[in-house]
Design a protein that fits this description.
- This protein is an alpha/beta fold.
- The chain has a single domain, classed as TIM Barrel, CATH 3.20.20.
- Helices cover 40% and strands 15% of the residues.
- The strands form 2 sheets. Strands 3-5-6-7-8-9 form a 6-stranded parallel beta sheet.
- The longest helix has 22 residues.
- The radius of gyration is 19 Å and the shape is globular.
């Protein structure tokens, strides 16, 4: 049994064509919610089966039931409503939610699908939540007098959902905060809210942050109240490793290191990924280094996602063999 260089993915997988079509039909009123849910479960089975076939260690359920990572949760809170389309990046748009009342948790939002996915495998499946700072930052606020009050109330909502996941049996809870790197002056608020979600939770806690100017806020990111940081690396040529190296004696967290670029159609070679992993091993020991893609895979085709993951897993196997780090968790 080895806990060295465990493999995982960040969260989302590409939706199969049949599910995309079904979501459109449901939105147009031509497919029932029950029929759509059955297709979401079918796609989730495929996501779990692929990860097991590849030999990934810590699985995700693929988020087949989710559209946008913020709107999915906003749609289940009476205090939020869905607004008009805004541009996310490139040619991608989402319906930006609106905070219209006091934020309160009203019941489990993710547990049913997590429980379904975990029932398909003996390997751990991460519970994945959108973080409170990102939920507020990517919404219009028409209710709260202060941004801090809104973020902390949202943190209490996310905490309750995290508790439900842990009670259901989740051993890993990931809180995605992609907005955290956009306002360096608010990293204190990010940390305060994340602490409300994670402290004393009773599971291994992770936060995923990607594509920002991390050098300006590295000390604050390194001290976020989680067990593991999940960071993109491949897209930025692993420059974050240099920051960690400079603060190596103070950096005590686990690091999930992105080694394949999810914004590129190009499939990395095994040697390219091995080189990235070895750069990580120059900075952190293998038991504190997890290997995954830069971010969620939903921007890629199913074929591209599978190919990138296959290269990633093969690269890890070869590095572990070279270092004598064999075995599975």
């Amino acid at each position: 049994m080895s806990n060295a260089l465990l493999t995982t993915t960040v969260g989302s997988f590409p939706k199969p064509a049949y599910l995309q079509q079904a979501r459109n039909q449901h939105a147009a009123g031509r497919l029932s919610r029950e029929e759509l849910a059955e297709l979401e479960r079918r796609a989730t089975r495929e996501v779990i089966a692929l990860q097991e076939e590849l030999g990934i260690d810590i699985l995700v359920h693929g988020e087949m039931e989710r559209g946008d990572m913020v709107a999915f949760f906003a749609e289940q809170l009476d205090s939020m409503k869905i607004g008009g389309l805004v541009r996310s990046y490139g040619n991608r748009y989402y319906h930006k939610p609106i905070i219209a009342g006091k934020l309160r948790w009203q019941g489990p939002m993710t547990v049913e699908m997590w429980r379904f996915a975990q029932g398909l495998t003996g390997r751990p499946v991460k519970g994945i939540l959108t973080g409170p700072y990102t939920m507020v930052d990517w919404s219009f606020d028409e209710y709260y007098d202060s941004r801090r009050e809104a973020v902390l109330d949202m943190a209490r909502v996310v905490r309750r959902e995290a508790e439900e996941l842990v009670e259901a049996g989740a051993r890993f809870v990931q809180v995605d905060e992609p907005a955290a790197s956009t306002r360096p002056e608010e990293m204190g608020l990010v940390s305060e809210a994340l602490g409300l979600v994670t402290r004393g939770l009773g599971a291994r806690t992770i936060t995923h942050i990607c594509y920002g100017d991390f050098a300006r806020v590295f000390d604050q990111i390194a001290s976020l109240p989680v067990d593991q940081l999940d960071m993109e690396m491949a897209n930025s040529d692993y420059d974050l490793l240099d920051l960690i190296r400079q603060h190596k004696s103070e950096f005590r967290k686990e690091l999930a290191m992105g080694v394949v670029d999810i914004h590129s159609h190009v499939i990395e070679t095994v040697d390219q990924v091995k080189a990235g992993i070895k750069r990580g091993l120059e900075v952190l020991p293998p038991e504190r280094l997890y290997i995954d893609p830069d971010c969620g895979l939903k921007t890629r085709t199913w074929q591209e996602a599978e190919a990138k993951l296959r290269v990633m897993v093969q690269a890890v196997r070869e590095v572990k063999q070279e270092l004598g780090l064999n075995g599975h968790p």
